[in-house]
């Protein structure tokens, strides 16, 4: 189970004071919320909550873990926000055949480079397959019915 998700579930349990309320708020089943709580307790190596039929209260360890959990989820949110706002920069190495470069990529370059001014584009134009790792290519565009074995191919268009 994902520890960040377990931490988020634990925080919601603590905020709402109930596994059922946390399950409803998170759109999860109650057993799933219970499993996340168990994961947090295993991770912490101690019991985090006292459960009764009517009430859920935090143990002393549960209080400490809640503070750490808040820090963890805040950091997770910050990291996620940075990647969503990140502006592409650096060098992008693209390999493609001569026809693809001239007919398909060239007309798109001015708009692409205007949209991503911090990106430097290196085109490797050739008509033979390239070693992505050996030649440090980020993306290879090939028009073929038979992709290379082991290549991750995606149909475009």
Key terms for this structure?
6 helices; 157 residues; transcription; D-Maltodextrin-Binding Protein, domain 2; LysR_HTH_N; Arc Repressor Mutant, subunit A; alpha/beta
**Which CATH architecture of the largest domain is right?**
Orthogonal Bundle
Number of helices: 6
State the end-to-end distance. 36 Å
CATH fold-level topology of the largest domain:
Arc Repressor Mutant, subunit A
Round the mean pLDDT to the nearest integer and report it: 88
Quaternary organization: single chain
- Outline the low-pLDDT stretches: none
Order of strands, main sheet, comes to 4-3-5
Q: Looking at this structure, what is the CATH superfamily of the largest domain?
A: Winged helix-like DNA-binding domain superfamily/Winged helix DNA-binding domain
Number of strands: 5
Number of domains: 2
Tell me the Rg in angstroms: 25 Å
Largest sheet: 3 strands, parallel
Estimate the helix proportion, in percent: 40-55%
**What is the N-to-C succession of helices and strands?**
HHHEEHEHHEE
Helix/strand/pairing category: alpha/beta
Q: Identify the CATH class of the largest domain.
A: Mainly Alpha
Protein name: LysR family transcriptional regulator
GO molecular function: DNA-binding transcription factor activity; sequence-specific DNA binding
Keywords: DNA-binding, Transcription, Transcription regulation
InterPro entries: LysR-type_TF_proteobact-type, LysR_HTH_N, LysR_subst-bd, WH-like_DNA-bd_sf, WH_DNA-bd_sf
């Amino acid at each position: 189970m994902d520890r960040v998700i377990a931490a988020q579930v634990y925080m919601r349990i603590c905020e709402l004071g109930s596994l059922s309320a946390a399950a409803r708020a998170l759109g999860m089943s109650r057993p799933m919320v219970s499993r996340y709580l168990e994961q947090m307790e295993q991770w912490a190596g101690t019991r985090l909550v006292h459960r009764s039929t009517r009430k859920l209260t935090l143990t002393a360890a549960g209080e400490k873990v809640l503070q750490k959990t808040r820090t963890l989820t805040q950091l997770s949110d910050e990291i996620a926000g940075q990647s969503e706002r990140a502006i592409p920069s650096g060098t992008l190495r693209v390999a493609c055949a001569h026809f693809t470069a001239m007919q398909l990529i060239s007309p798109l370059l001015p708009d692409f480079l205007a949209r991503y001014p911090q990106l430097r584009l290196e085109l490797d134009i050739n008509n033979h397959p390239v070693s992505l790792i050996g030649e440090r290519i980020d993306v290879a565009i090939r028009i073929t019915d038979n992709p290379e074995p082991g290549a991750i191919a995606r149909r475009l268009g």
